[in-house]
Amino acid sequence: MQLRCDVHTHTLYSRHAYSTILENVHAAKEAGLELLGSTDHFSSMLYPEYENIRHYQYLCVSHTWPKEIDGVRLLQGCEVDIVDLDGHLFGYDIPIAKNIDGDFYNDKKTLSLYERVTRKMDYVIASVHKHSFADSATPLECTKLYLEALRNKKVLILGHIGRSGLPFEIDPVLLAAKEAHKLIEINEHSMDSGNHCIDRCRAIAVRCAELSIPISVSSDAHFALRIGQLDKVKKLLSEIHFPEELIATRSKDSFLSAMKDAGL
Questions:
Q1: Is pLDDT above 80 for 193?
Q2: Would you say the pTM of this structure is higher than 0.85?
């Protein structure tokens, strides 16, 4: 099984990751990848005063990076937190009218922090990290939050749903992703989170195969040397005979095609 993309990766900006974007690109080239997606965290875990647009300059201008470095296609995105049972994404309720200089934006609009940060990105991964908001939630409520997150037009991937710890109903989420031409992620980092998590990821992958739901396979690397290292996920997918044509990250062309199908 040849997987030529890694579209969920982190740089130093995420604060608990350890490599620069150039180190990640070079690692991707060494791993034989055709495409790298850089998706640093966009959430309240980064800064105590998270309402300040200045904290997110790195993300706001990542669209200015070269589109290709050393033969590796480079995409700019982020991994944004789902923050409540309504499926809202981090920054949705923080109005931003002024830029990092303190001047009003040229468009004279007051947009949300989420809109300001992501509007020029290639795609967004929506994930649950801090899940205390759902501690007493029912499976139906947890299902709803993923369905609502999928409605956001920038969201291309639901991140590590097998590791979220939420008791959601699998089929409705997978079928909604399929209808919206979006991807379900099975990532390498989840394989290190214990047998319960692996079993959950396996069950999700099996249903994706049965329902013909496209998936995204990525490392969730927080260190350059883990870019493109996907052996554990490959082993899981091989064991269940997962159809390679349903893996959107199998090649650069297949991933860019998946983005186009999703309207990105």
A1: no
A2: yes
Backbone φ/ψ region at 127: left (φ over 0), alpha (ψ -120 to 50), beta = beta
pLDDT at residue number 195: 81
Contact assessment for residue 2 and residue 245, using Cβ atoms and an 8 Å cutoff: no
Residue labelled with tokens 């990532």: 187
Output the average pLDDT for the chain: 95
Residue in the structure block whose two tokens are 């069950």: 203
- Is the four-CA dihedral 147, 152, 155, 156 of positive or negative sign? positive
d(C-alpha 100, C-alpha 82), whole Å: 25
pLDDT at 71 over 90: yes
> Locate tokens 């991994």: which residue?
79
Q: What is the pLDDT of residue 131?
A: 84
Evaluate if residue 155 carries a pLDDT over 80: yes
Which among 149, 243, 232, 125 is positioned nearest to 187, based on CA atoms? Answer: 232
State how far the Cα of 78 lies from the Cα of 62, in Å rounded to an integer. 10
- The Cα 179–Cα 163 span in angstroms is 23
Taking 3-state DSSP, the helix, strand and coil percentages for the chain, each rounded to the nearest 5, stand at 40, 20, 40
At 65 the pLDDT is 95
CB atoms within 10 A of CB 159: 28
Question: Which pair of structure tokens corresponds to residue 184?
Answer: 């379900």
